[in-house]
User: What shape does this take?
Amino acid sequence: MSDQLVTVLDWIAILCLLAGALLSVVAAVGLIRFPDLLSRMHTAAKPQVLGMLLVLVGIGLRLAPVEETNVFNVGTLLLVGLFQVVTIPVAGHIAARVGYRTGRIREDLLVRDDLAERLARKREEDSARRAE
Amino acid sequence: MTAQNVGKAGKRAGATALRRRLGKVQIPVALGMTLVWLLLFNGFQWRWESLGLFVLGFLVSVAIMLVFPLPPITPGFRLHPLPLAHLVLHIIGKMFTASFRVTAQVFSPGEVRSSVVAVPMRTQSDLMLVCTAIASSIIPGTVIVEVSRDEWILYVHVLGAADDAGIEEGVRDVMVLERLLVRALGTREDIETLEAASPSGKESA
Assistant: This one.
């Protein structure tokens, strides 16, 4: 590859890395600033996904022109991205669900809550069944 | 019964058990695992070792499925290339715009109010439900709090949905995702169920 192309790729890579790092900082600020668990889940799991993907793209662009690397290659980065994207929602969902079910949320911040209605309905059904 | 007969019966039982386990090996899943193996060990190069890596990876995948058999994915999925590209572009675009919105919410003063909204799913496939949940989870601003499988409802926490318009938008976003996903990965029955449940493009207006 020509030197010019490599330089251009390097600059794009730098931009991606910086943008990714910036998004991670935003996520950290959000963690401190948001008041309750559910809102914090958003920043804990989210800008960070895009941030991580951008960092991976940046690393990939830096790696691509290099002919021979020992362990890392673009395939490894693909795998990292794939498994992060698939596993982050699972962790986020479990944390949110446990937090919600154990009452560690602030109801005053919720404008509408369909799930509370459903849980209340279920509890009523259960107690009715037990009474029979 | 002599000891020899017992030994034979045991061997036969072992053979049928092995055959049953071999029947549980799903070739597409094994190929997917082989792909992961190749990515791990840099197998995508034109050289003779790649062929060996492929065979080895396939054998390892089959061995894993023999030791840890899992129920098959029913009814499975089909790849539709063009809708899949549409879906990926949609998710990436949404990730960027939603990241900006969440960033703005992080730095705007005052408390952010949100809603937990029930989103009824139109698909009747477990796989599509899971994929929709994952896709809406990686897009900033929505977190799945609860999945009700028997009623096909996702309970979504929408950040910053403080009024009816915001709630409406959150529900519509998830439903658009569901439609794109079913079109990209669903079997023909999945797509038909979805189109029957709501006419095309209704929620994406």
